[in-house]
């Protein structure tokens, strides 16, 4: 009996010792080394290590970008989503502060980080003439205005454009967002196109020079950089997006999303050059155009997206669709969604701005890969490109934004820069009947001044597209801006509103 009791005690003591040793080992153990989380490793090695750890569902999730209105921490976690965007008017709350934006973005980011591999998402927003979706942000002239800015020497002023890019980047980062869907480098060839204001010029050489906004947004490319590799400098910079690839400004009769009928030589000599400049400056992403080239939808054009952009130009960032661009491969949109997914992903689109119906997209893509309709190699290529941008930006090291930059939003220095840009963008076509009898400047004591058009007292119309309603109504419209410089009781204002033929005195 004593011997049995002694044996039992020895066994129990041994178990206790093993348990203690295990606990001590666990307490003193180093965390499991993961190469993809080591910033000292080359980006290529980190990408390779991470991709081989990913499941098909995790890979496809990285290729999906959804709108803020359908995003949540749980959605990010459950579907392994790689990106979120704010579409027009998609905000945390009306007139949300910079801090509110930061908190919203961070909340979604925490959902992404809570996944098995902890891959951060990238949040994108249209910041096409300043951070135009955000209340109290600085608004700059549209590209059509910036395209005519000149030095006193009457030369183009690309350095002014670069400063605007840097200011915009700071304001975007102030809201916790690291990705801007800008610049638009369309070459508008027909003034009937409703988006001509987003084009710097009908002259591709001017558009090429205005790509200097990219180093403003992203930072100056290091001298030893490889061709086509994306670059984003630091946490005051954002990933840029050259758009819309390509020929969007050359559609027949200027009809939006229409067909660009032009030879390959014409396409390359007019619409391609600005993309060459953008890639040489390290642009991180390129967005595909809704339009077609000679009847072939750009979202389904493998020859130009993969064959030319990726293979020939060696672009190593990722290609993103336009808003529901996959849906619009067919007419009407979404008519044959499965075949559109096959065509779009097969063409070389890496990230799909699906916006809302993300579960349908994900399920369909999983089915197509498992049934060998879309090859796994195409998925891996897309994921590697997306991860490359995220690694280069430092999102794995610092995925969460802080409040240190909130005061950059609407900063006076940026507003002064906007005023400079406005002054330099003004073009006086004619001043009076003859040069020796100028009409301007108008005398303060003129009997009457006619201010014609609905823009006269509407700040949204005055600012133009992307700010008509989203930005709020802070600032001076044309009418209120005139009052401070006019002498009291000296003028009779006369407004004519073309849209309803009413007159107000």
Structure description:
- It is an enzyme of class 3 (hydrolase).
- Keywords: Glycosidase, Hydrolase, Membrane, Signal, Transmembrane, Transmembrane helix.
- Belongs to the glycosyl hydrolase 3 family.
- Its EC number is 3.2.1.21.
- The N and C termini lie far apart (114 Å).
- The protein has a five-stranded parallel sheet.
- It has three domains: 35 residues; 355 residues, TIM Barrel; 77 residues, no CATH class.
- Helix content is 39%, strand content 10%.
- By secondary structure, the protein is of the alpha/beta class.
**Poorly predicted regions:** 11-26, 498-505
Name the quaternary structure: single chain
CATH superfamily membership of the largest domain, which one? Glycoside hydrolase, family 3, N-terminal domain
Helical stretch tally:
18
CATH architecture of the largest domain: Alpha-Beta Barrel
Largest sheet: 5 strands, parallel
Q: What portion of the residues fall into strands of 2 or more residues?
A: 5-15%
Alpha-beta content class? alpha/beta
| Amino-to-carboxy terminus distance | 114 Å
Question: Given the C-alpha coordinates, what overall shape results?
Answer: globular
Instruction: Give the number of DSSP strands.
Output: 14
Please bin the fraction of helical residues: 25-40%
Main-sheet strand order equals: 4-3-2-1-11
Protein name: beta-glucosidase
Family: Belongs to the glycosyl hydrolase 3 family.
Keywords: Glycosidase, Hydrolase, Membrane, Signal, Transmembrane, Transmembrane helix
Organism: Linum tenue
């Amino acid at each position: 009996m004593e011997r049995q009791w002694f044996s039992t005690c020895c066994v129990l003591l041994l178990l206790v010792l093993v348990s203690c040793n295990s606990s001590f080992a666990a307490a003193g153990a180093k965390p499991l080394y993961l190469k993809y989380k080591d910033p000292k490793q080359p980006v290529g090695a980190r990408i390779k290590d991470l991709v081989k750890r990913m499941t098909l569902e995790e890979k496809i999730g990285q290729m999906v970008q959804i709108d803020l209105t359908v995003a949540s921490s749980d959605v990010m976690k459950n579907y392994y989503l790689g990106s979120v965007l704010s579409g027009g008017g998609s905000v945390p709350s009306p007139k949300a502060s910079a801090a509110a934006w930061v908190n919203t973005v961070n909340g979604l980011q925490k959902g992404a980080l809570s996944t098995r591999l902890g891959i951060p998402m990238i949040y994108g927003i249209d910041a096409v003439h300043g951070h135009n979706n955000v209340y109290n942000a600085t608004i700059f002239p549209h590209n059509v205005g910036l395209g005519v800015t000149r030095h006193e020497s009457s030369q183009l002023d690309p350095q002014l454009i670069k400063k605007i890019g840097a200011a915009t980047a700071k304001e975007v980062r102030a809201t916790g967002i690291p990705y801007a869907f800008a610049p638009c480098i369309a070459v508008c060839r027909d003034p009937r196109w409703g988006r001509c204001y987003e084009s710097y010029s009908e002259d591709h050489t001017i558009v090429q020079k205005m790509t200097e906004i990219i180093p403003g947004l992203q930072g100056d490319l290091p001298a030893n950089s490889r061709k086509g590799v994306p670059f984003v400098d630091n946490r005051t910079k954002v990933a840029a997006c050259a758009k819309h690839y390509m020929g969007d400004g050359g559609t027949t009769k200027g009809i939006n999303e229409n067909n660009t009928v032009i030879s390959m030589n014409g396409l390359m000599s007019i619409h391609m050059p600005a993309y060459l400049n953008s890639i040489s400056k390290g642009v991180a992403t390129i967005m595909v155009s809704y339009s077609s080239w000679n009847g072939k939808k750009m979202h389904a054009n493998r020859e130009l997206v993969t064959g030319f952009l990726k293979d020939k130009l060696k672009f190593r960032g990722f290609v993103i669709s336009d808003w529901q661009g996959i849906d619009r491969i067919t007419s009407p949109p979404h008519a044959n969604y499965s075949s559109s997914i096959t065509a779009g992903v097969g063409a070389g689109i890496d990230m799909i701005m699906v916006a809302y119906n993300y579960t349908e997209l994900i399920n369909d893509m999983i089915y197509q890969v498992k049934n060998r309709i879309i090859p796994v190699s195409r998925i891996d290529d897309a994921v590697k490109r997306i991860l490359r941008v995220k690694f280069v930006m430092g999102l794995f090291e610092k995925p969460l934004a802080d409040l240190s930059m909130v005061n950059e939003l609407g900063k006076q220095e940026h507003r002064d820069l906007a005023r400079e840009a406005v002054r330099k963008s003004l073009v006086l076509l004619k001043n009076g009947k003859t040069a020796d009898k100028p009409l301007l400047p108008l005398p303060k004591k003129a009997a009457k001044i006619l201010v014609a058009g609905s823009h006269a007292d509407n700040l949204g119309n005055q600012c133009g597209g992307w700010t008509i309603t989203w930005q709020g109504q802070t600032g001076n419209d044309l009418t209120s801006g005139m009052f401070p410089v006019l002498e009291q009781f000296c003028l009779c204002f006369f407004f004519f509103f073309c849209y309803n033929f009413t007159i107000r005195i």
